[in-house]
Predict the structure.
Amino acid sequence: MLLAGIGKGVSTMTATAASRCGSAIMLTDKQAMQLDSWKIKGIYAEQGGKVLLEWTAGGPDRPASIYSCTKSVLSALIGIAVGQGLIGSVSDPVFSYLDMEEEGIAKAIEDDPRKRDITIQHLLTMTSGLDWPDFDKPYWEMKKAASPAAFVLGRELAHEPGTAFTYNTGGSQLLSVILTRAAQESLPSFARKNLFRPAGIGSARWNRLGEGHEAGAGLSMSMKDLSRFGRLYLQQGRWNGEAIIPPNWIADSQKPHHKGLLHYEPSIYGCYGYHWWVSPESKQDGPGYYFAFGYGGQYLFVIPSLDMTVVVRKSLDGRNKSIYSRRVLTELVIPAATGHTW
């Protein structure tokens, strides 16, 4: 384990607050050099609501893009809308929430009536069946489309809904359209009133997309606020006694609904829940966890058995090098918090 040794050498990084035994996680010079070689930009770890490690490669913890970690935040917003009765059920057909007079929406059904069977749950679990190849390749076309919703629904149906996993940010954009139509307000407004403000998350900013906002990869926030979002899940959706996210939604979100990309090597993905990934280690000897994952190695890890959240921010350096962010969790933070290598 390259990072497992938590030594007493001079730290070249800022480490604050302590583990359960009261001792700070201090990073040795060797560990600092390793993190630098992995292009890690920041780490923020909490356990039991107390900071274990807060470090950035340079400067304060400013808001930055969390890329597809945005999807897990979107999932929470859908859960809140279901809890408020704005959305009836995840079993509801997608088309029952869309404007059938919008150009391209009705035509999508005319071209293939099987699309009527696509449900909200299919979008949440990436099993809509819509053709979306090569790790989100159509995403860039969708961003240029006059109607992102019509573009997504206009894709061919490659599989029967519910039968196959295909990573699809277009489905996330459809979920945001459903949410904004059901709530009759913008995505940022709904998120601010029902999630961010009650949980004390103040740094969140959304990218625009067409007439709406980019719901699958367009959110920026600080590491501390992303960790706070994860803490909300550990607290069964409650913050300072206020119920924010329904607890049954949190349970369903972290449940593996599909094996997802469990086969992918290196193991940067896992099984898939409701816009959350579920770690393959959950089935092994180490502590199980689920996580939000953004392009290039942006992670929010939620580890219920350790009452821990860990945020890792990384420079964009290709998809597969995201594995280094996973190694920060398994070779540094968990051993430091538990006293055991993993």
Observations:
- The CA atoms of residues 236 and 251 lie 9 Å apart.
